[in-house]
Amino acid sequence: DAVLKAGEIQEDVGRLKLEEKAAADRLAAVRKGLEGRANEFLLKARLSLLNPVAEGEDRLGRTECWFKQALDAAQTAEVLFEYAHFLYDYNAFSRAEPLWQEALQLYRNKAEEDPKAFLPYVAITLNNLANLYQTTKDFGPALAEYEEALKIRRDLAEKEPDAFLPYVADTLNNLGLLHSDTKGLGPALAAYEEALKLYRGLAEKEPGAFLPDVAMTLNNLAILHWETKDYGPALAEFEESLKLYRGLATKAPRPFSQVLAETLLNLSIFHLKAVPDKDKSVAYAQEARDILKTLIQQAPHLQGHLDHAERLLEANKTQPDA
Predict the structure, then answer these.
(1) What is the Cα–Cα distance from 170 to 173, expressed in whole angstroms?
(2) Using an 8 Å Cβ cutoff, are 70 and 79 in contact?
(3) Which of 73, 119, 123, 307 sits at a 20 to 30 Å CA gap from 246?
(4) What is the mean pLDDT of each run of 10 residues along the chain (322 residues)?
């Protein structure tokens, strides 16, 4: 007790606390600097995807190099999220999944401190993970992720409907597709119908932004009703979707001509197999073929669609006239 001087101990405690704070401040500054460098590499990765490619250059390899350097500098949620998105877009699903999972946990942690700022990021990461699981036919996790994302987005939309109702509708549409894939036709119908109702409401205020979503959801509903042999609603939905895509393609041919042709092909098949009408089937196939011929030079990946249109025309030749 004689050796242990309270005043000296307290003085050391005070000095060490000051050193601890200084070290923490230095560490925070270092981390901030690393995050800044990570964001700069992330920007280089984004630009790499946009920049022209020299002959023999590997754009994807170059881009991934910048993503890896960003991740090496700082494993932030933003870097993890965007790197995973890049990998997903190029079908590297097994590599994308753990990065999105790590980003999700970071966003969850941030949302505990600031839910308003970070819950939207939790929801979008859940939605992307669900898309990945659906693509890889891992339907159980996909359903769980979509449902959690939907709950978060519904809660956010109650407070800020203009900002978050489109995301509610998007998630419902994704759920409809998932239930269709797993033959949950009742839940799929409910999800599509709610999504369509939301998209119609949004399109009344912003038709340019949301009419494409109305047309897409109508097309999904038509296919679902077709599968259940409910041909009356299916035909009405296909025709309304076609009308909307015609209007959209007239104003903006580049983004909408392909989906217009796909809808025409659907209607041609529908009138060949479900509700036979040779004249309509031929007319729709011919119109689809004509559109696809104008697109094929700039979009050679549509050759399969063009071949499909030709096969439909051949199939109709063997059909008896009505």
Answers:
(1) 5
(2) yes
(3) 307
(4) 80 92 92 94 92 78 94 95 96 97 98 96 98 96 97 97 96 96 94 98 96 97 96 97 97 94 97 95 97 93 95 86 58
**Minimal CA–CA distance to 123: which of 178, 83, 168?**
168
Integer Cα distance of 240 and 244 in angstroms: 6
Rg (CA), the chain: 27
Q: Are 270 and 235 in contact (CB under 8 A)?
A: yes
- Is 322 in a helix, a strand, or coil? coil
CA separation for the pair 38, 73 (Å, rounded): 5
Residue 138, classified by CB atoms within 10 Å of its CB into exposed (0-12), middle (13-18) or buried (19+), is middle
Encoded tokens for 48: 């790499």
- Contacts of 138 by beta carbon, 8 Å cutoff, 6+ apart: none
Q: Please give the single-letter amino acid code of residue 168.
A: V
pTM of the model: 0.86
